[in-house]
Amino acid sequence: MRNSDGPLWVEYLTAMLNDADLYTFARVGATVNNSLVFRPQPDFSGQVYRYTLTEDTTEPKYDKLYFIWLGGNDIAELYNNKKYPNNNVERDRILNDTQFTIRYNLEKLYETGARYIICLGVNPTHLYPANNDKTEEFRQSYKESIMKFNERLQTNIEDLNSRHNDSKAVFFETYKLFYSFFPEQTIMENSKWHCNYSAICNG
Predict the structure, then answer these.
(1) In this predicted model, which residue has the larger pLDDT, 184 or 79?
(2) Nearest one of 50, 136, 145 to 90, comparing CA atoms
(3) 115 occurs within a structural domain
(4) Three-state DSSP state, 130
(5) pLDDT value at 87 more than 60
(6) What is the mean pLDDT of residues 159-182?
(7) Could you tell me where the DSSP H helices lie in the chain?
(8) Which whole number is the average pLDDT over 12-39?
(9) Domain assignment of residue 98, yes or no
(10) pLDDT at residue 195 tops 70
(11) How many domains does the structure of the chain reveal?
């Protein structure tokens, strides 16, 4: 299932890698663990489980690269779905618990032979246009949750490498990279309006 007006970032990447084969088990809108933050899509655990059932798990992994991008939907749901507690202590507890799920599934991937894993951090989604009508306090709290999630995810990756000498997992800092790509004025302008499927968006 796609949620894009054009090629996805990973499709651009595969083209840059001499049209490398691309296998995706991701589901748009998914969270890390549906028992912690629910959405109707198969969660990260379910996606990893589906992968472990494929023949790919028995093939050599020396030339295979695994990309994992998660956390953004969890944070969005915790801040925008009223069924979740409206306080930072509970949000922090839930997001911390998602890291245990991530750790478990990173180990599952390692057990299948995955060695080259790139986990992308959550980008500055507190500045999405959907949050433009929220208070500054709301956006600041949202931002802090992103930063904490990314820090814990990076620690998870470092822990995986420390447990396994042959693991080459990497945490990719999308949050800071986003700010290095775009001037702050452009970021703030884009936080206030949506492209509405225009051919060319600002920036």
Answers:
(1) 79
(2) 145
(3) yes
(4) helix
(5) yes
(6) 95
(7) 9-16, 44-52, 72-80, 88-111, 136-163, 174-181, 184-190
(8) 91
(9) yes
(10) no
(11) 1
Position 15, amino acid: A
| Summary mean pLDDT of the chain | 91
pLDDT of residue 199: 55
Q: What pLDDT does residue 201 have?
A: 56
In a domain, 202, yes or no: no
pLDDT band at 185 (very low <50, low <70, confident <90, very high): confident
Q: How far apart are CA 24 and CA 176, in angstroms?
A: 26
Domain membership flag for residue 31:
yes
C-beta of residue 92 within 8 angstroms of C-beta of residue 148: yes
Segment holding 172, helix H or strand E: strand 170-172
Using CA atoms, how far apart are residues 45 and 34, in angstroms rounded to an integer? Answer: 9
Give me the domain span that covers residue 165.
20-190
Place of tokens 């998660």: 70
- Whose CA is closest to 70, among 151, 8, 7, 153? 153
Give yes or no for a contact between 167 and 110, defined as CB atoms under 8 angstroms apart. Answer: yes
With bands split at pLDDT 50, 70 and 90, how would you rate the model's confidence at 40? very high
Q: Bridge-partner residues for 68, per DSSP?
A: 119
64/116 Cα distance (integer angstroms): 7
What is the DSSP-derived secondary structure letter of residue 3?
Answer: -
pLDDT at 131 over 60: yes
**Complete DSSP assignment for 42-75:** --HHHHHHHHHTSGGGGS--TT--EEEE-SHHHH
